Amino acid sequence: MLIDILYLGINMGNCLINKRFFSRYPEAEQDYYDGFRWLVRLKQEQPGLDMAIKHHPGDYDYTRDKQELSIIANTGIRYIDSHMNSYSIALSSKVAVSYCSTMILELNGY
Predict the structure, then answer these.
(1) pLDDT band at 16 (very low <50, low <70, confident <90, very high)
(2) For the chain, how long is the longest CA-to-CA vector?
């Protein structure tokens, strides 16, 4: 599976119970969604790029995130099954980016 740009989602299961976003600073929620907005702007500038989002497996279900879905809707950016191997997909992609996944640091070693 060759993807031009893979956006690795963070493991939202590590956030506070019943609270979706980190409470470290007031703009955390805005910053999180700005990552998706950036991805959409890039897709608009380069519509020929194959772009996908891959969230980590776990208790997070992106289909319940209405704001994320609204940002990504009708953009041509697709979602990869969260249960697929993130490392295999990232390594077969041309570029992997993320808002704050530690996988980005791990992938630097490859």
Answers:
(1) very low
(2) 39
10 Å CB burial of residue 99 (0-12, 13-18, 19+) is middle
**Is 49:78 a contact under the CB 8 Å cutoff?**
no
Q: Helix/strand/coil (H, E, C) string of 48-110?
A: CCCEEEECCCCCCCHHHCHHHHHHHCCCCCEEECCCCCHHHHHHCEEEEEECCCCHHHHHCCC
pLDDT in tens, 37-83: 999 999 999 999 999 999 887 766 778 888 889 999 999 999 999 88
| Cα 13–chain centre separation | 14
pLDDT score recorded for residue 61: 75
